[in-house]
Amino acid sequence: MSKYKVNVISNEKEVTTHELELKQPQDKQVLIKVDACAICTLEQRVYKGVMKRYPFAGGHEVAGTIESIGENVKNVKVGDKVAVFLLTSCGECYYCRKGLENQCVQSFRTSIHEGFVGPGGLSEYMLVDAKRVYRLADDINMSHAALTEPLACCVHSINNAKVELGNDVVVIGVGIMGGFHIQLAKLRGARVIACDINKGRLDVARKLGADIVINSNETNAIEQVKTLTEGRGADVVFCTAAISQLAADSVEMVGKLGRVIMYSSFHPDNPIDLNVNKVHSKEMIITGAVNPCTSDFLTSTRLLSYNLINVSDLISDEININDIQKAFEKAIDPLTYRIIVKCNR
Ligand SMILES: [Zn+2]
Ligand SMILES: [Zn+2]
User: Fold this and answer.
1) Which CATH architecture has domain 3-147+311-342?
2) Can you give the residue ranges of every domain in the chain?
3) Ligand 2 centre and the CA of 61: distance in Å?
4) CATH code for residues 154-288
5) Tell me: the pLDDT tens digits for 182-193?
6) What b/e sequence results for 161-185 when a residue is b if at least 16 CB atoms lie within 10 Å of its CB, and e otherwise?
7) Which of 103, 123, 242, 282 lies 20 to 30 Å (CA to CA) from residue 231?
8) 152 C-alpha to ligand 1 centroid (Å)
9) 39 C-alpha vs ligand 2 centroid, how far in Å?
10) Residue 180 and residue 310: Cα distance in Å, rounded?
11) pLDDT-derived band at 108, boundaries 50, 70, 90
């Protein structure tokens, strides 16, 4: 019986490699040879000790190739390139039955590798139910494909914001999530205004299609957005930076009937002052976006398979799985974009 490797965050700043027995898929299972797994904020927080849940088999942004299939698998065949949807949902709760499985009461309690909690993408192989894999184009770049899940989160966010043709859309923060929001808002026909305090990131924003960039270190971004919109304020503001002041600024930037999306999660979760009368009289909508639904995930696989999204500029490095510690150290540098772990190279 052959073995395969799984990487597990075993403590603060500590990753250990375990060897497990490689099992063959049964019934409706598929065995995936993992090509690429990106290190997301969740894994970074566990690694840094911000979230102490050890041991944690991290890695939920995964793309791989079908190695073998169970006897009742119909949707994929051996050799297919796939993205893996690792967000679990029970299918039985109120939200699942409304088709909003991203709000499932039991979401994200995956355990892919025997004995370890967590989605487990930082491994050589994964054995999962066939319904979790989504087929991709044969010629797709697998490092790009690993970003299906974060892009799907942004698709969900764009859908929540109901971005319309000709809207003024502000994206606060040009990290990877800001970069995806810029591109998706452009695809929806908006004029996109990107805000950041880092010049390099604003250059990336322009490259990804932002029409206007604002360096919030140099200008008052709220005033600037008002000026650009004849005093009205934006139609949509996405806050993709986890800073409470920026969340407050987002509410100030939006105009009548505008939508504010709190995309980031906040740790620590410092409350902000909210002028409720403004919400009342402007009829503004303040909402969030957390995790994708299956339909968002499907949309994301199509956007990537059809090459409609620039992913190259949002990947800082590709690192071999044997250098996993180095990959984590690089990933936690706040100025890097995604670090991709190549799991079988
Ligand atoms: Zn993620
Ligand atoms: Zn559910």
Assistant:
1) Alpha-Beta Complex (3.90)
2) 3-147+311-342, 154-288
3) 21
4) 3.40.50.720
5) 999 999 999 999
6) bebeeebbbbbbbbbbbbbbbbbbb
7) 242
8) 9
9) 26
10) 8
11) low
